[in-house]
Write a structure and sequence with these properties.
Distance between the termini: 44 Å
Bound molecules: adenosine-5'-triphosphate, magnesium ion
Number of strands: 14
CATH topology: Rossmann fold
Strand order of the largest sheet: 6-9-10-3-11-12
Mean pLDDT: 92
Shape: globular
Number of domains: 1
CATH superfamily: P-loop containing nucleotide triphosphate hydrolases
CATH architecture: 3-Layer(aba) Sandwich
Structural class: alpha/beta
Order of helices and strands: EEEHEEHEEHHEHEHEHEEHHEE
Largest sheet: 6 strands, mixed
Radius of gyration: 19 Å
């Protein structure tokens, strides 16, 4: 069954078009690896799917289990089963983790979770992620180490049971043991009713989680799709071969026009 369908998606941030016609379909049970050079729109794509307000969709459609995602609020998207672990999770001083998780769990239930049950699930998830339980009494991500932030994102995923989990560079900042913990938990959470869209620059993570498919984003659209062989080739050779073999010219980040406030566009940086 198709869980996510993206058709000709275009999106802008600060008046610069970042997504330029993304077409992508994800089926339930799939683990899709999303790769691509820096700045080519991977995080933007996940943010747009989740409904981040910084991005303006200018064309195209997104359907989640047949429903029009672009007409849903962020909250509705989360309740429908979408989850995003961000590349750079924000620190939110004053928002206590256990309160945040309780609110997120309750948003998806009819009856609020009982305190003892909340403690039990937090205790179990903390142990599985090898994180101290007392972290739950701290403010969200405040003062967390890079690796703790990433492990905490996976802990949230485990507690919220999404049907589509989008993980943006979940391996960045993790030490070798941390990557294994995160990969093990991703593997544990795999099911034919859940799909993953996983961004990473490294074969190391993908070797551990065995994606069913690899998708490469270049210049704001999906350039090629394949399997583990695409991931391994990128790992060994970079992206140059795609330019040659697929006749795609990879735009450099510094060749984009620089938008100065709202009235001036500096074309001087264009090559
Ligand atoms: N708020 C913003 N204002 C201006 N430009 C932005 C903003 N957010 C993103 N961009 C630009 O959009 C482009 C795509 O960014 P995005 O984060 O989607 O890339 P990415 O493929 O995830 O790269 P990476 O592999 O480095 O994480 C980049 O050039 C980035 O600078
Ligand atoms: Mg990114």
């Amino acid at each position: 069954m198709v869980i996510l369908e993206i058709k000709n998606l275009h999106a802008k941030v600060n008046d610069v078009e970042i997504l330029r016609g993304v077409n992508l379909t994800v089926n339930s049970g799939e683990v899709v690896a999303l790769l691509g050079p820096n700045g080519h729109g991977k995080s933007t794509l996940l943010s747009v799917i989740m409904g981040h307000p910084n991005y303006t969709v200018t064309a195209g459609e997104i359907y989640y289990k047949g429903e029009d995602v672009l007409s849903m609020s962020v909250d509705e998207r989360a309740r429908a089963g979408l989850f995003l672990a961000m590349q750079n999770p924000s620190e939110v001083p004053g928002v206590i983790i256990s309160d945040f998780i309780r609110a997120a769990i309750n948003a998806k239930r009819e009856k609020p979770i009982k305190p003892i049950e909340l403690f039990r699930v937090l205790d179990k998830a903390s142990k599985e992620m090898q994180m101290p339980l007392d972290l739950a009494n701290r403010s969200l991500n405040e003062g967390f180490s890079g690796g703790e932030k990433k492990r905490h994102e996976i802990m949230q995923m485990k507690l919220l049971n999404p049907e589509l989990a989008m993980l943006d560079e979940i391996d960045s900042g993790l030490d070798v043991d941390g990557i294994k913990i995160v990969a093990n938990q991703i593997n544990k959470e795999k099911s034919d009713k859940r799909s993953f869209l996983v961004i990473s620059h490294y074969a190391r993570l993908y070797d551990l989680i065995n994606p069913t498919r690899a998708v490469v984003m270049i210049n704001g659209r999906v350039a090629i799709e394949g399997g583990m062989e695409v991931i391994n080739r990128i790992d060994q050779e970079g992206y140059e071969w795609i330019q040659i073999e697929h006749n795609i010219s990879i735009e450099r980040e510094d060749s984009r026009p620089v938008v100065l406030e709202v009235c001036a566009v500096n074309e001087g940086t264009k090559k």
